[in-house]
Design brief:
The protein has helices at residues 3-7, 13-29, 35-46, 48-66, 70-91, 99-118, 120-139, 144-156, 166-169, 177-183, 185-195, 201-208, 230-244, 256-266, 273-293. It is an all-alpha fold. Helix 7 packs antiparallel against helix 8 and helix 11 runs antiparallel to helix 12 (201-208). The longest helix is centred in the first third of the chain and has 22 residues, at 70-91. The structure holds fe (ii) ion (FE2). Fe (ii) ion binds at residues 157-158, 186-187, 210-211, 239.
């Protein structure tokens, strides 16, 4: 759901402008002042699903506008993710005092904090992968709850790297075959860790399979095609795409259009063609919104 689409939905327009207003205040003040209460109140009027759709559309509108300013973009995306959680909690009227909710909400934060202490690069990659995974999930037509779940799996996909030895995790050159065997255990380790957290057990199968390849040439189980969970196939594309467009100590980032060309070349082999196709949709939608927002220039024809 895009902002223009939502705006055609007449009775939601006022709510949407309020949300955009509150998001701008929350971003400026770095605190989600009144956002949860707003979400709870609106959910009683239009339903929690509509509130989450509004949040997705408003976040996209803000991040698409801000993408013109690349220095602040990634931080903004992470902040919007945090605000989306506040809205989701308010819209579903979950009390933060409920110990079960507390556990479910805090577990990913605790695991990510551990990952951040272990390796900052993997931690920031996890957050960015979650953003791309959510975009892809929306582009392939998943609903808000499914999109949120895919984002969570994207966030935690590499959590198993806490067990990868430092000499391998931070190695500046290519890995030896023996080192690759150790490195490749991280996706299974991610699954093993999440299997032990009751509220995240659903993610275990997904993260275990995020390095499976569509043609069966991946790891750890050599799954292929539809035997690979669809969420894993989404995370796989998000993971690879974000890795390619990010700087690493041993190589520079490549341009998004070059990364998309590599994905195209690997579709049906490494990646699910449907998910690779969806990334074009993500960019087409961003371009369309940018074009709509482009100010009219006096000198233009
Ligand atoms: Fe991985």
């Amino acid at each position: 759901v895009t902002l223009p689409e939502l705006l055609e939905w007449e009775n939601i327009e006022t709510s949407l402008w309020h949300l955009l207003d509150k998001l701008c205040v929350a971003l400026r003040k770095s605190t989600p002042y009144g956002l949860g209460t707003w979400a709870e109140r609106e959910a009683t009027k239009v339903g929690s699903a509509a509130v989450m759709h509004m949040m997705v559309a408003a976040s996209r509108a803000i991040s698409d506008t801000a993408s013109r300013y690349p220095h602040d973009f990634r931080r903004l995306e992470v902040e919007l993710e945090g605000l989306a959680k506040v809205v989701e909690r308010g819209a579903t009227m979950e009390s933060p005092l409920d110990p079960r909710v507390e556990e479910r909400d805090r577990s990913p934060d605790v695991l990510l904090a551990m990952l951040a202490e272990r390796d900052a690069v993997t931690h920031s990659h996890a957050k960015a992968t979650a953003v791309w995974a959510r975009r892809l999930a929306a582009a392939v037509g998943l609903n808000a709850a499914e999109e949120s779940f895919v984002g969570l799996c994207g966030l935690l996909h590499d959590i198993g790297k806490v067990s990868t030895p430092e000499a391998i995790l931070s190695k500046r050159g290519p890995l030896t075959p023996e080192e690759w065997i150790v490195m490749k255990d991280h996706s299974a380790a991610s699954g093993r860790i999440l299997e032990r957290v009751p509220s995240l057990r659903r993610c275990a199968e997904v993260v275990r399979a995020h390095h499976e390849a569509y043609d069966g040439g991946g790891y750890p189980d050599g799954l292929s095609g539809d035997d690979i969970p669809f969420e894993s196939r989404i995370v796989a594309v998000a993971d690879s795409f974000n890795a390619m467009i990010s700087d690493r100590p041993y190589r520079a980032a490549i341009l998004p259009r070059d990364a998309m060309r590599i994905l195209e070349e690997g579709k049906g082999k490494k990646w699910d063609p449907r998910v690779v196709g969806a990334i074009h949709g993500v960019f087409a939608q961003r371009d369309a919104i940018k074009a709509q927002n482009k100010p009219r220039l006096v000198g233009s024809a």
